[in-house]
Every structure is written in C-alpha cells, then in structure tokens.
Specification:
The chain contains 2 helices and 21 strands. By secondary structure, the protein is mainly beta.
C-alpha cells in the first residue's frame, strides 16, 4: 500500500501543471494563492514593493522610509538597507544593475540609489529630480520603470488623479513629464476609483514582449479597492476586485512569470497567480486516473 501511495504522490508531482510562460494577461484568470507575513522592519505600513529581475527577489519599503527590505517570494527577509532623511516614501521601482528609484509623495521627487545589504544612505546624498510642486498627502503614490523605453510611469493619488509618463536624467536633476490619460478637471476619477495607489508596467515580463499586453499597465486603487489592466491612453481592459483580499493594499509588482505581488498596511504580502488552463487540469486528472489505476493493481 505504501508503494502505491508513493507512486501516486510522485505521479501528482509529475503531472501537476507548472506555471507556463505568460503570453497574455487577463486579470479574470487570477486568484489569491498565498498570503505571507512581511518582516516587522518594513514598518507598520508596507507602502511599495518591486521585483528585481537580476536577483528574482522582492524589495519592500514602508511609508516612513527607514528601510528597504529584500525578501523572498514567501516574504522571508534576506537583507535590508537603512535609508534616512526621508519623510513619505510611497513608490519604489527597480531599474537594473542593483539600482532603485524611490518616490517622496508630498515633495513629488524621485531619488536614485544603489542597494547595499546592511548599508545606509541619506536622502540628501542621492541624485534626484523633482517632477511636480510640493503638495499635501495627495501626491505621487506609485512609480514603475519601463525597460522598453528607459522612462517611468507614475500615478498621482488624487486632486487630481493622474497617470504620468516621465523621462529623468538623474545626473543633471532634470525631468520631462507628460500626462498620459486625459481628464476633465482636478476632481476627475479617471477609472471610477476613489484614488490611484500604484502602477506597474507589463514590459518587465519577458514573455509579454511582442504581445498585445506589452505596453499596458497594472494600476491599483487602495480606496476602491481594485486592480486594473489599463492601456496607456486610459482604456480599462480588465479588473480584479480586492475587497475580499484586504482593504489596505497599496503596493504592487509583477515578476517575470506573471505572478502579481501586493502589499498592504498590515504589513502582509499577497500573491496572485493565474489559474491553469482547463487543458492543464484535464492532463492532471488523466494522470491521476492512470496512476490511481496502477496503485490499485499493486494493492491486489
């Protein structure tokens, strides 16, 4: 009997569908697959998360801006770096070669830094650029580096809600900013949402390059709460209702496999993965039936 059970377990592992390369993105096919506790060093509120394609790990920052923390995909701490002199860090994105860009919401400024495990750096020592005037707690909430263009996409929380495209020269401290999505006035709700909390380009997913989704964006609203796939002119292609997941989600990233990672104020790490295609389930069931028959014959 033990032999049959072992064979069945091995069969399940052998035929279980691995996550295939993502060739198109449909948020209707995603589900919450896991929730993990993040390290307390990320602060009481994990305001932003980004994926490094060089290390295949995640980096999280709290809104106090005291630490950037490297974690694995189960939320376990791998390393950390101390930041000081920051006030309201709400956006974080990886730009390659161990470098990151962080956003100060009220100052509406971006800062470039090299990540050093167990190191420390102050805001005043970093190359930076200002993208807009200083505002209240309604400024730049999210940023995503676009490796296809070398620029950035950013979202402003409200009054007005806005989606910006920006090119930044950190060496000179200069930036060019344009508004991507047209709006009627400063009170416009661009996507029928109460706020905009984070943005993620899809050009960081290698298998989506050349697809219809390559230039699209994932945009998150905390207050609504909703995750949307949006074209760069503002057309909403699909959405995922986050109300049953958590009410405080404000960080968003996606890895090279198309797995989506979200963070909230708790702080927790939420993992959204695509549901396997029906054909994969059919293959799994067929494999289980086959090896189940083998196990039964061995029991006789």
């Amino acid at each position: 009997m033990k032999t049959g059970i072992c064979a069945l377990a091995l069969a399940m592992a052998a035929v279980a569908p691995a996550q295939a390369a993502l060739t198109s993105l449909d948020l209707a096919n995603y589900r919450l697959s896991a929730t993990y506790q993040l390290p307390s060093v990320t602060a009481s509120e994990a305001s932003a998360i980004t994926w490094s394609w060089d290390t295949d790990t995640l980096f999280v920052i709290g809104d106090e801006g005291d630490y950037v923390v490297e974690v694995d995909k189960q939320g376990n701490q791998l390393s950390k770096m101390n930041l000081f002199g920051f006030d309201d860090t709400e956006g974080l994105t990886y730009v390659g070669n161990n470098q990151f860009v962080v956003v100060e919401e009220r100052l509406q400024s971006v800062y470039l830094f090299d990540y050093t495990a167990d190191g420390a750096i102050g805001r005043s020592f970093l190359q930076s650029a200002t993208l807009g005037p200083t505002v209240g707690n309604v400024g730049l909430e999210g940023i995503s580096y676009d490796p296809a263009s070398g620029g950035f996409i950013l979202v402003k929380e409200k009054v007005p809600q806005a989606v910006y495209g920006a090119t930044v020269n950190f060496a000179t401290g200069s930036a060019s900013v344009s508004e991507l999505v047209a709006r009627e006035n400063q009170f416009s709700q661009l996507f029928g949402t109460l706020d905009l909390s984070e943005v993620q380009v899809l050009s960081t997913v290698p298998s989506l390059l050349g697809s219809a989704d390559q230039d699209n964006l994932l945009i998150l609203s905390q207050e609504t709460p909703r995750l949307m796939e949006v074209t760069r002119d503002g057309t909403v292609l699909g959405s995922f209702d986050l109300s049953a997941v958590a009410p405080d989600i404000e960080g968003l990233t996606i890895d090279g496999n198309g797995t989506i990672y979200l963070t909230g104020e708790t702080p927790l790490l939420y993992v959204l993965t695509p549901v396997p295609e029906p054909a994969s389930y059919a293959m799994l069931l067929a494999g289980l039936a086959l090896f189940g028959g083998i196990a039964r014959r061995r029991l006789r």
